[in-house]
Amino acid sequence: MPVKDPCKVFACKIQDCLKENKFQEPSCQRILEQMRDCCRKWKDKSLVCEGIDISDKPDPK
């Protein structure tokens, strides 16, 4: 039985959000952060996390 990718749901939500917002990434920041959080936890188990920057972002000043 195949193992379910724990972060795939966020990858799908990002694609939907981008389509709904004419590919304006700032409109989807909340979902992108959820994806990063998932990838921080599951980076070794999730194929959709390849290429995702999981470093903590510095607070804007």
UniProtKB/TrEMBL annotation:
It is found in: Mitochondrion. It comes from the Eukaryota. Its main location: mitochondrion. Keywords: Disulfide bond, Mitochondrion. Pfam families: CMC4. PANTHER family: CX9C MOTIF-CONTAINING PROTEIN 4 (PTHR15590:SF0). Belongs to the CMC4 family. This is Cx9C motif-containing protein 4. It comes from Molorchus minor.
